[in-house]
């Protein structure tokens, strides 16, 4: 029930639809009970039991309500039909049609309004989840499979709609239908109704025992769905490698094993769920059979109940079965929905450790430089950076070089505050970046990564990502700085050309130049280049390197370099090894010292 309360808070903006749903459900429940009670005068006419009454009866209290109702209907039939019984039958049939018509109109209106609430909650949960996914730190998703996250925002949210939000329809309508029906049943026969209530709790206990393991079984199904969605996502992302290494059968085997488990878990869950309907129906018929026997005795032997009232009573008893079955199914749905809600709320309630502190300042200018003071950082157990110090003055270019695993990219992740340092502090103009809002901090920075991260959209929209409402002239100017304008103009629709998923319609060099154009358009004072040319061929590297040099003019730049030939003009080169600085200086100074840097340069010269 805790999960239900947490999900229900998303219904607050749509409460007016909920109120209207409740209003029409009350009318539906009332007319549902009355429509069966209205069978009594019709049956009395058919059985020729209608007494000729020429004056309306007087109301003598709740205990005589049945007699008053029957007398009133007999009076109306007498007034309408006179000596012709067919006229009386016509009146009784018309009354039943009227009641059933409005019962169904109210049912439709109730469902009409609840639709807005259900779909609104669905929309808001998905929006909140997406907002949370974007807000959570990168470290959160290094521990999660993408397919599992996708499963939570799609199928799990849909399961919440089918389970929890379905209860909103039942929570008023079905109990009220049962309540109003029972009131009418009591009016017709107190003795028979008390007898019925001996059996209802027994049936309810048997039904509830069937669904105890549903949450556990549902949880297995949803986890396995996340598993095979992850396999699909990885397959689509690595299709070239899979084909190149003839690994199709291996991946197919993994996927097949996952879907086989999903098949078994789903069968187990659905078979348990399907058991609820026939069980509740059979138990209902048992109650119905016992009711026929007991009520038949009252009509045939005791004479304490007339036949018309008994037939109407049976209709009312049957009217209880449908909402009772719906409530029974709803209890199963809640158990199934609990698992989905738990997985959705796990993301929604995840705390973001990288958040703005109270009183964090907006910083829009950059005056003196970036400084890393005695910082230490670890992703898990071992420190990647240890007591690391680095100062980058405004307008200078500092290059970080070293073997893989030396901590170069970690510096970029920490400066952009994708991760927070474990010890020490990072300062911009003497202010700790933890005291600057994340949005304004990242607004000061442009990032070009080794992997060109582009989106399935037009060239124009990919370049304009970092600057809303950028003019076409600004976009074209940025593309020219990035040496991208010429190849863009050769594309079928120029700047309006869609570049495909992850920019797959473009070459590596073209993708990287679009990434650079995006950073140029943003026009940040601090530029971070994370091995921006390492994945390119020689010709593309030259074009991209020219673009980078154009971009870095008059900017403060931190360059993480794989190819050392690209950073020889840097103001300072920092050589890193195992999270520490082993050398620092200009290219010429480091070559003269003939230590680590010179060895790296010679190794690359030899390998090339």
From TrEMBL:
UniProt KW Transmembrane helix keyword: yes
Segments forming domain ABC transporter: 370-603
Protein's membrane topology: Multi-pass membrane protein
SMART domains: AAA (SM00382)
Membrane-spanning parts: 22-47, 89-114, 178-207
Record Pfam families: ABC_membrane (PF00664), ABC_tran (PF00005)
Keyword set, alphabetical order: ATP-binding, Membrane, Nucleotide-binding, Transmembrane, Transmembrane helix
Limits of the ABC transmembrane type-1 domain: 19-336
One Gene Ontology molecular-function label: ATP binding
Cell compartment(s), UniProt: Cell membrane
InterPro entries reported in the protein's UniProt record: AAA+_ATPase, ABC1_TM_dom, ABC1_TM_sf, ABC_transporter-like_ATP-bd, ABC_transporter-like_CS, P-loop_NTPase, Type_1_exporter
Top-rank taxon, per record: Bacteria
Main location: membrane
PANTHER family reported in the protein's UniProt record: ATP-BINDING CASSETTE SUB-FAMILY B MEMBER 10, MITOCHONDRIAL (PTHR43394:SF1), ATP-DEPENDENT PERMEASE MDL1, MITOCHONDRIAL (PTHR43394)
Protein name listed in UniProt: ABC transporter ATP-binding protein/permease
């Amino acid at each position: 029930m805790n999960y239900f309360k947490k999900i229900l808070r998303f219904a607050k903006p749509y409460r007016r639809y909920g109120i209207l749903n409740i209003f029409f459900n009350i009318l539906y429940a009332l007319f549902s009970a009355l429509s069966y009670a209205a069978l009594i005068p019709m049956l009395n006419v058919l059985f020729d039991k209608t007494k000729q009454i020429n004056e309306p009866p007087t109301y003598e209290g709740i205990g005589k309500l049945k007699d008053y109702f029957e007398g009133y209907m007999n009076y109306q039939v007498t007034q309408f039909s006179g000596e012709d019984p067919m006229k009386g039958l016509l009146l009784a049939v018309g009354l039943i049609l009227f009641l059933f018509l409005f019962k169904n109109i109210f049912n439709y209106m109730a469902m009409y309004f609840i639709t807005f609430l259900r779909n609104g909650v669905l929309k808001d949960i998905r929006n909140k989840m997406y907002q949370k996914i974007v807000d959570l730190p990168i470290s959160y998703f290094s521990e999660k499979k993408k397919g599992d996250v996708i499963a939570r925002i799609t199928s799990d949210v849909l399961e919440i709609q089918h389970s929890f939000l379905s209860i909103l329809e039942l929570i008023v309508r079905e109990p009220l239908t049962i309540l109003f029906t029972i009131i009418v049943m009591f009016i017709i026969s107190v003795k028979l109704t008390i007898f019925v209530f001996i059996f209802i709790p027994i049936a309810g206990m048997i039904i509830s025992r069937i669904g105890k393991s549903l949450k556990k079984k549902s949880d297995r199904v949803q986890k396995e769905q996340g598993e095979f969605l992850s396999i699909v996502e990885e397959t689509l992302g690595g299709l070239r490698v899979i084909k190149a290494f003839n690994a199709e059968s291996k991946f197919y085997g993994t996927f097949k094993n996952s879907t086989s488990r999903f098949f078994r878990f789903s069968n187990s869950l659905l078979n348990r769920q399907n058991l609820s309907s026939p069980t509740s129906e059979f138990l209902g018929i048992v109650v119905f059979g016992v009711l026929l026997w007991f009520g038949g005795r009252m009509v045939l032997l005791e004479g304490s109940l007339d036949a018309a009232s008994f037939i109407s009573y049976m209709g009312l008893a049957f009217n209880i079965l449908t909402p009772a079955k719906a409530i029974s199914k709803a209890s199963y749905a809640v158990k199934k929905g609990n698992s989905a809600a738990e997985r959705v709320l796990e993301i929604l309630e995840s705390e973001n450790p990288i958040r703005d502190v109270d009183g964090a300042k907006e910083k829009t200018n950059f005056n003196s430089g970036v400084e890393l003071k005695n910082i230490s950082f670890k992703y898990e157990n071992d420190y990647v950076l240890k007591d690391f110090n680095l100062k980058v003055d405004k307008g200078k270019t500092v290059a970080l070089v070293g073997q893989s695993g030396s901590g170069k990219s970690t510096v970029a992740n920490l400066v952009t505050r994708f991760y927070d340092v474990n010890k020490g502090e990072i300062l911009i103009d003497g202010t700790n970046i933890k005291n600057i809002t994340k949005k304004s901090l990242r607004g000061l920075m442009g990032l070009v990564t080794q992997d060109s991260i582009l989106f399935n959209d037009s060239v124009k929209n990919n370049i304009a990502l970092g600057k809303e409402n950028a003019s076409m002239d600004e976009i074209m100017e940025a593309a020219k700085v990035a040496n991208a304008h010429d190849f863009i103009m050769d594309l079928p629709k120029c700047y309006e050309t869609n570049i495909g998923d992850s920019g797959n319609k473009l070459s590596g060099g073209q993708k990287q130049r679009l990434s650079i154009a995006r950073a140029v358009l943003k026009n940040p004072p601090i530029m971070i280049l994370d091995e921006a040319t390492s994945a390119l061929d020689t010709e593309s590297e030259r074009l991209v390197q020219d673009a980078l040099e154009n971009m870095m003019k008059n900017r403060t730049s931190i360059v993480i370099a794989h190819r050392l030939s690209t950073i020889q003009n840097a103001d300072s080169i920092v050589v890193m090894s195992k999270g520490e600085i082993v050398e620092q200086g200009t290219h010429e100074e480091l070559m003269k010292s003939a230590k680590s840097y010179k060895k790296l340069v010679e190794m690359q010269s030899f390998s090339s």
